Amino acid sequence: MMMKLPSAGGRSPLFALAVSSGVVLVFIFGFMAWQRPSRIPFPHSAGSTHSVITSTGERVDISINEIIRLLYDGLKAAPTEPFIREPNGSHIELPSRPRYKKKMGSDILILDLETRPLQSTEDFKKGEYDWRNINHVSGGVFNHYTYALIHGYDYKFIHAHEFEDRHATWIKPSALANHIKDYKFIVFLDADAAFRFLHVPIEWMLNYWDIKPQHSFVMAKDPWDPKEPQYNSDRFNRTYTNTGFMIVQNNENTMPMLKAWHECPEDTRYANCSQWKQPKFHEQSAFGEYIRYDYDKYIKELDCGEANGFPGVEISNCQGKFVRHYWFEKHNVKTDFRENIMNAITLPIQKIFAENKGGVIIEQKQNAIHA
Ligand SMILES: *[C@@H]1O[C@H](CO)[C@@H](O)[C@H](O)[C@H]1NC(C)=O
Ligand SMILES: *[C@@H]1O[C@H](CO)[C@@H](O)[C@H](O)[C@H]1NC(C)=O
Ligand SMILES: *[C@@H]1O[C@H](CO)[C@@H](O)[C@H](O)[C@H]1NC(C)=O
């Protein structure tokens, strides 16, 4: 089931956004339209459309999809970008000989999966949408959706129904199995996990992590805490991988793995897997205790810090280098999203001041009142 996106109309949140920051958006869009006359096509018909008067007085229909794409057009990293610049000035260098040189666009699906509807949608329907009041779930989902728009990936929000006999997170294997056949990769994130750099495409991360054709799953490990050595460890004392961020690649082992995982609690292939129907960590434990031992070669386990945790976590240095997963302090999902978007919006504004576009900067050589 796809998330119903707001249709055109005065009550959409995008309209509210356009009103609240209307001057800025019109200004930026006018500036961008003037900069790049060619319209960028986008495959999604979703997204609400509004008429905007550009600075040249021309009336154009734009959607948030197009605004986001234009905003990130000059900011996006290439799949083979030599390095990514961190806000503190450090560089994260791409290793030599990257495998993924081209953007994969709609061969990649960004996937959200929830049993609950978005609470912000309720507010929106009442005409009460406000960014400041939305919870981290909407914040995370909006981060994922925006990421898909920026890079031209497909996006789906699957609203799954609850199991009767097992915990809600068991919906993951079947949802992945039902969509992987249409894609080369599915990138799944929990709502409390988000892309740290919206401008860095997943192809770049696939290169950075050296994901090979045989890898069906990419997941980051959970932290290992010497004070609680068993907490995130399986019965062989191996640390679990976290299912809050998964890259699933469509290859010959993917469906068998997803099926084995989904059917694990039936205890046919794996005795005692049903013990994970309800207790923590549910499907994550089942994957760690059983599935990975049959398919080890096809799983790329990343260090925790690559795609799990968040700044300030000390154990296992899990600081979310590329994907942040806020096990606690979940509201920071929104902060990270806001920082990304503000960076994108203020860059063209900064450009205006740097280049004195439209003569906004006026030299006052003599501090005297002219007659
Ligand atoms: C910048 O931050 C990263 C963590 O995000 C850290 O690994 C790196 O050492 C920092 N660099 C500097 C120059 O502080
Ligand atoms: C479990 O693994 C950790 C390292 O991850 C190690 O320090 C510890 O000694 C191991 N415990 C046992 C009982 O083998
Ligand atoms: C299954 O779990 C029970 C306890 O939950 C244990 O006594 C039994 O040995 C387990 N069987 C296997 C095959 O691991």
Task: Provide an overview of this structure.
Helix content is 33%, strand content 16%. The chain is of the alpha/beta class and 371 residues long. The chain has two domains: 13-69, no CATH class; 79-341, Spore Coat Polysaccharide Biosynthesis Protein SpsA, Chain A (Alpha-Beta Complex). Helix 1 packs across helix 2. It is elongated. The model is unreliable at 1-47 (pLDDT under 50). The structure holds 2-acetamido-2-deoxy-beta-D-glucopyranose (3 copies).
Draw up the topology in text.
Layout: H1 13-20, H2 22-35, E1 49-53, E2 59-63, H3 64-73, E3 83-85, E4 91-93, E5 108-114, H4 119-125, H5 136-151, E6 154-159, H6 171-180, E7 185-189, E8 193-195, H7 202-208, E9 217-221, E10 241-249, H8 254-263, H9 282-294, E11 299-302, H10 304-307, E12 323-325, H11 332-355
Parallel strand pairs: 5-6, 5-7, 9-11
Antiparallel strand pairs: 1-2, 3-4, 7-10, 8-12, 9-10
Helix pairs in contact: 1-2, 3-5, 5-11, 6-8, 8-9
Bound molecules: 2-acetamido-2-deoxy-beta-D-glucopyranose (NAG) (3 copies).
One 2-acetamido-2-deoxy-beta-D-glucopyranose is lined by residues 224, 229, 237.
